[in-house]
């Protein structure tokens, strides 16, 4: 290998912190087996990580130290040979808590580079989420339910080693399968993990994504003003007060003004669906929402404002009525339109929409619930579909 | 009859004389400036300021929130936040007390809060020492605070009024530290002219924070956390404010002379008998007293010696000071501070002077002295020795490479 | 005691904030709104929202360093509708005093309109229970200044990535007290009893209370009481932290309730020198509600996943002690034999 190769892991803050670290460490340690030298680091601006907020970890492998120095004082590489999305919902875009504007998941993938996604969705479905690119790239889907755990207890479902196994297939320049297997054996001393890596290597295939394929929408960009334009005293305007909602001849309720620079479209893996006919107007979803993402409608019901929802699920947890507020897999939504307006326009059609959505409750576990939970889940679903592949 | 002597008459009529210390002079200035919030925490010699303020408050001579804090850090934070809502505030400290407040001191300039603080210059413990040394104030020299050194109680009073006028100018909006030498200035009482309130009111407009004021009528967010995308721009803004301060200081002193009929022509440094001087000493604070005495004596003997007292250390007037100093045959810089391991093992001022001279075509030799640490007196023989060494450098056309410690026992 | 004797001269105007009668009467307006960058299910963000919802538009908020600074206000954007200013980690007390003193002076001198302005200064447990304790204590002595200091307690230095604080519960996993092979438990300090400490230590202070945002109306009414009673006041809020405690963010609300129901987080207030237990805590003490075993609370959190049964028993014993041996159960930890209890080896 004569050139530096950059790999990026885009993941859910905290939920997948250990997973991302394992992958990047594995790459660098495997490359070492071939005499190459590398570094593994998280994007500094993503730290401290926030649960669920997109974050990045990088592995950079170079033929020698001099080459590596190019990458050693950067927050992130300009382009990547491989970008790994360990949650398929990140295909909708990436916005860290610490910076502005939406980065398409494939933004850094170089011409003919590869995007690896762990997902149970078909490639075509994922491509529809990914923003279009002027240059072609390749997509590899590793069939897996995106692996989530927390800060202290790791869900060891082999996602890390399966992704490591896929790498020599999509980017032989980076490292060989043999070195990957050696590194896994050394790091985890677990033959089943070595097998998982090899099986994934064997099964992984890529599909080329042509220029213009995917989501055509132009992502939100933010231009930084200079010092002569910025207000003194590190001072900015606060958010203005909200207003009542106007709908047809109805005026009432309340819609808070919201931070125009940071929306949470990319922060969630699920979102609430509201069955307005079931609502008893108890206010709890609205009152207990940490993100103030509910608008109070003129009917005194509560409408999700999807720009603000980070998908925590507290609203479902506090709702006293069954199936009134229900968290649904984010993959099932193509837009962020108002549910209440759809309900007002056509109640029957809305009811049908709700009933269909409620068949897509998320399979993800968003972190620790009880001791032994992860072991049970892994035992139930195996390590990746079909166990160790 | 020239206008100056005309105003001089008016002054004599209107100003009252009081026998007060430098700290007390600053306290009187806070009353004249109608300061809204003052915070106190004891440490010698700074506490003499707030003791006097406490008396003025107790006797109903001063209307302000007077708050005895539970630490220097809180003292500065309370004053800082009072400034943010548009209240005029004053606090200060000495020695390690100033260091204890350092976090608050460090954050104030970027917030563009025109807090005025008095530093009763004191040696840094350990070992515990009450005497004067400038390292406490100088520890904050690079942070965006304006720094001014005074050498008389009168100058302390006048400069306090000046400090608010400059700091609260929207073009500046930076905090200002007034350094007064412990003991010599903070604890000895001299006759001070106290101007009438009407003059002060004419000179010092109310503090108007404008659109940066923290108040329910002005919903703003102040000091959100920033990442690498922003901080350089914010630093550059503070840098611009400090550059602006040079011109604003000139305006303030000009106005002060117009209204008070006294005060300095050149705000930034005082020249004493430099007109035809061949060698000069340079220093800050009360060491000016023995130096001036010696200069006068030597002048009587026909020696062409002078003294330059740096008053405004930040912003530093490198252009005028550089132009002036390059005229002389040799310069002796006296530091009442240290900067261990710095170039030539000098104090802070000496290396600032060297840097200033570097831009000049003519660069006289600079002899660097460290004297009067921990409040040790700078004696007449000590001053004579420094002048003698500087004169030798002039004759030789070069200065000793290393810094000279004056009055230290071997 | 005769409360009137204790009332200081309060010359700064006080707001009139009526109690909110039920969730349906909660104000619609948000003064802390969407677009902050906290974790999914962040209870402290909810605390910020309810705090200013209760306080209303004539409020100024000072925020000391921590999650509720860094995650809520990332430069060039903010989630605050009311004026907000950062203060240093240990400065919540000083910031409250400085701000209130500034307004007081300006109003008295006629430099600004004389009107009630709510001054709220918040801090996390690191800023409040550790570094800022001295400044908060100082602030609670200056009776001339009306303000509220709110401590949002997520039981670690959460913003810097979950390091142990003086408010971290016994045995919890933090990045400064990881569970390891040789040492099962590194953090052996028992959580500071902040609210009672401050109430007992500042006899002039007219309001000190504990709250939990899982009970939103109780929470908001305590904020209103603290802001309208006059002088410096203090409220301590227990905020479940999905990141540091390691649980599904969906359970934030439930964990708050469990902390109260297990007797780990007593809800009480000291109002004009009268102690009152309230909400579920009162129900437990009056026998209307069964105190739940701490296991139900601890075992839902990854930070306690390394606990053995001995650890859980020790934790339970310490909590039982709060309710059976303390001089004032749940509030004042004085009794003759507290010290006989020792952690398991």
From TrEMBL, chain A:
The keyword Iron-sulfur applies. Transmembrane segments: none annotated. One of its GO terms (molecular function) is metal ion binding. It comes from the Bacteria. Keywords: 4Fe-4S, Iron, Iron-sulfur, Metal-binding, Oxidoreductase, Repeat. The keyword Hydrolase does not apply. Gene3D superfamilies: 3.30.70.20, Pyruvate-ferredoxin oxidoreductase, PFOR, domain III. Residues 270-299, 300-330 form the 4Fe-4S ferredoxin-type domain. PROSITE patterns: 4FE4S_FER_1, 4FE4S_FER_2. InterPro entries: 4Fe4S_Fe-S-bd, 4Fe4S_Fe_S_CS, Pyrv_flavodox_OxRed_cen. This is (4Fe-4S)-binding protein.
From TrEMBL, chain B:
Residues 31-252 form the Pyruvate flavodoxin/ferredoxin oxidoreductase pyrimidine binding domain. One of its GO terms (biological process) is carboxylic acid metabolic process. GO terms for molecular function: oxidoreductase activity, acting on the aldehyde or oxo group of donors. InterPro entries: PFOR_II, Pyruvate:ferred/Flavod_OxRd, Pyrv_Fd/Flavodoxin_OxRdtase_N, THDP-binding, Transketo_C/PFOR_II. Pfam families: PFOR_II, POR_N. CDD domains: TPP_PYR_PFOR_IOR-alpha_like (cd07034). Keywords: Oxidoreductase, Pyruvate. Residues 277-380 form the Pyruvate:ferredoxin oxidoreductase core domain. This is Pyruvate ferredoxin oxidoreductase. The lineage of its organism: Bacteria, Bacillati, Candidatus Sysuimicrobiota, Candidatus Sysuimicrobiia, Candidatus Sysuimicrobiales.
UniProtKB/TrEMBL annotation, chain C:
Residues 65-236 form the Thiamine pyrophosphate enzyme TPP-binding domain. The keyword DNA-binding does not apply. It comes from Candidatus Segetimicrobium genomatis. It comes from the Bacteria. The keyword Oxidoreductase applies. This is Pyruvate synthase. PANTHER family: PYRUVATE SYNTHASE SUBUNIT PORB. GO terms for molecular function: oxidoreductase activity; thiamine pyrophosphate binding. Keywords: Oxidoreductase, Pyruvate. Transmembrane segments: none annotated.
């Amino acid at each position: 290998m004569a050139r530096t190769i950059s790999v990026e892991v885009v993941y859910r803050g905290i939920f997948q912190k250990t997973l991302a670290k394992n992958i990047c460490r594995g790459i660098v340690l495997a490359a070492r087996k071939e005499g190459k030298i590398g570094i593994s680091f998280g994007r500094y601006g993503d730290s401290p990580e926030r649960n669920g907020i997109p974050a990045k970890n990088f592995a950079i492998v170079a033929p020698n130290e001099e080459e590596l120095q190019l990458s050693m004082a950067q927050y992130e590489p300009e382009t990547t040979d491989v970008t790994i999305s360990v949650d398929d919902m990140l295909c909708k875009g990436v916005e860290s808590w610490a910076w502005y504007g939406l980065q398409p998941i494939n933004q850094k993938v170089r011409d003919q580079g590869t995007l690896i996604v762990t997902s149970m969705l078909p490639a075509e479905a994922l491509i529809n989420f990914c923003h279009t690119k002027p240059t072609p790239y390749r997509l590899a889907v590793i069939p897996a339910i995106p692996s989530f755990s927390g800060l202290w207890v790791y869900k060891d479902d082999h996602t890390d080693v399966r992704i490591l196994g896929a790498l020599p297939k999509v980017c032989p320049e980076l490292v060989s399968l043999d070195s990957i297997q050696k590194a896994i054996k050394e790091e985890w001393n677990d033959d089943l993990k070595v097998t998982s890596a090899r099986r994934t290597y064997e099964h992984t295939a890529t599909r080329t994504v042509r220029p213009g394929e995917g989501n055509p929408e132009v992502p939100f960009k933010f231009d930084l003003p200079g010092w002569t334009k910025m207000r003194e005293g590190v001072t900015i305007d606060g958010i203005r007060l909200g207003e009542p909602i106007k709908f047809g001849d109805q005026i009432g309720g309340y819609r808070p003004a919201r931070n125009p620079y940071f929306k949470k479209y990319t922060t969630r893996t699920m979102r609430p669906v509201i069955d307005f006919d079931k609502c008893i107007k108890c206010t709890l979803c609205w009152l207990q929402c940490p993100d103030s993402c509910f608008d109070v409608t003129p009917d005194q019901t509560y409408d999700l404002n999807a720009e603000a929802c980070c998908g925590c699920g507290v609203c479902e947890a506090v709702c006293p009525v069954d199936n009134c507020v229900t968290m649904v897999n984010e993959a099932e939504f193509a837009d962020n339109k108002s549910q209440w307006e759809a309900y007002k326009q056509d109640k029957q059609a809305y009811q049908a929409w709700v009933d269909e959505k409620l068949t897509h409750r998320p399979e993800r576990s968003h972190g620790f619930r009880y001791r032994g939970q992860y072991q049970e889940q892994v035992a139930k679903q195996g390590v990746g579909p079909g166990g160790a592949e | 009859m020239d206008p100056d002597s005309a105003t001089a008459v008016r002054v004599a009529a209107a100003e009252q004389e009081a026998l007060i210390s430098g700290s007390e002079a600053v306290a009187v200035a806070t009353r004249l400036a109608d300061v809204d919030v003052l915070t106190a925490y004891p440490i010698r010699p700074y506490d003499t300021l707030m003791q006097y303020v406490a008396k003025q408050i107790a006797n109903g001579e001063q209307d302000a929130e007077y708050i005895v804090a539970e630490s220097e850090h809180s003292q500065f934070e309370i004053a800082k936040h009072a400034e943010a809502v548009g209240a005029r505030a004053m606090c200060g400290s000495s020695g390690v007390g100033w260091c204890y407040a350092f976090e608050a001191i460090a954050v104030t300039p970027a917030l563009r809060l025109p807090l005025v603080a008095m530093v009763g210059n004191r040696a840094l413990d350990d070992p515990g020492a009450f005497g004067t040394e400038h390292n406490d104030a100088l520890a904050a020299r690079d942070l965006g605070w304006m720094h001014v050194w005074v050498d008389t109680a009168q100058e302390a009073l006048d400069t306090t009024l000046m400090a608010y006028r400059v700091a609260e100018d929207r073009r500046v909006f930076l905090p200002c530290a007034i350094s007064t030498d412990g003991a010599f200035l903070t604890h000895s009482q001299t006759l001070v002219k106290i101007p009438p309130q009407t003059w002060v009111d004419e000179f010092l407009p109310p503090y108007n924070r404008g659109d940066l004021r923290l108040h329910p009528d002005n919903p703003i967010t102040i000091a959100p956390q920033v990442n690498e995308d922003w901080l350089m721009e914010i630093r550059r803004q503070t840098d611009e404010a400090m550059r602006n301060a040079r011109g604003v200081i000139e305006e303030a002193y000009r106005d002060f002379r117009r209204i008070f009929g006294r005060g300095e022509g050149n705000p930034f440094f005082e020249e004493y008998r430099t007109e035809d001087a061949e060698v000069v000493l340079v220093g800050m604070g009360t060491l000016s007293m023995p130096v001036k005495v010696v200069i006068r004596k030597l002048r009587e003997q026909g020696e062409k010696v002078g003294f330059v007292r740096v008053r405004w250390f930040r912003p530093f007037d490198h252009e005028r000071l550089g132009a002036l100093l390059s005229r002389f045959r040799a310069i002796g810089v006296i530091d009442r501070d240290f900067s261990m391991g710095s170039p030539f093992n000098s104090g802070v001022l000496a290396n600032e002077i060297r840097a200033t001279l570097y831009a000049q075509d003519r660069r006289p030799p600079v002899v660097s002295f460290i004297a009067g640490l921990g409040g040790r007196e700078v004696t007449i023989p000590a001053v004579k020795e420094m002048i003698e060494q500087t004169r030798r450098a002039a004759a030789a056309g070069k200065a000793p490479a290393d810094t000279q410690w004056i009055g230290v026992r071997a | 005691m005769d409360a009137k004797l204790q009332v200081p001269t309060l010359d700064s105007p006080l707001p009139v904030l009526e109690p909110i009668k039920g969730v349906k009467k909660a104000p619609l307006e948000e003064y802390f709104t969407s677009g902050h960058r906290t974790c999914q299910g962040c209870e402290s963000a909810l605390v910020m929202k309810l705090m200013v919802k209760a306080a209303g538009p004539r409020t100024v908020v000072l925020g000391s360093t921590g999650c509720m600074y860094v995650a809520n206000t990332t430069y060039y954007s903010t989630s605050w509708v009311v004026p907000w200013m950062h203060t240093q980690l240990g400065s919540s007390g000083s910031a409250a005093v400085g701000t209130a003193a500034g307004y007081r002076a300006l109003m008295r001198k006629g430099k600004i309109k004389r009107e009630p302005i709510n001054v709220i200064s918040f801090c996390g447990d690191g800023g409040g229970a550790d570094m800022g304790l001295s400044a908060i204590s100082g602030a609670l002595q200056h009776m001339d200044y009306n303000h509220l200091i709110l401590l949002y307690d997520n039981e670690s230095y959460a913003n810097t990535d979950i390091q142990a604080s003086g408010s971290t519960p016994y045995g919890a996993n933090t990045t400064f007290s990881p569970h390891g092979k040789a040492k099962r438990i590194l953090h052996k300090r028992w959580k500071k009893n902040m609210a009672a400490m401050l109430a007992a230590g500042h006899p002039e202070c007219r309001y000190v209370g504990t709250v939990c945002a899982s009970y939103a109306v109780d929470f908001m009414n305590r904020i209103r009481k603290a802001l309208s009673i006059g002088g410096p006041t203090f409220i301590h809020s227990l905020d479940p932290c999905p990141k540091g405690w390691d649980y599904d963010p969906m359970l934030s609300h439930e964990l708050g309730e469990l902390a109260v129901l297990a007797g780990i987080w007593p809800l009480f207030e000291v109002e004009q020198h009268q102690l009152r237990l309230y909400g579920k805590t009162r129900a437990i003490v009056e026998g209307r509600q069964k105190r739940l075993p701490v296991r139900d609370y601890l075992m839902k959190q990854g930070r306690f996943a390394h606990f053995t049964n001995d650890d859980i028993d020790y934790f339970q014993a310490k909590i039982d002690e709060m309710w059976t041996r303390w001089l004032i159960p749940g509030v004042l930890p004085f009794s003759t034999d507290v010290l006989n209890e020792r952690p398991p080896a």
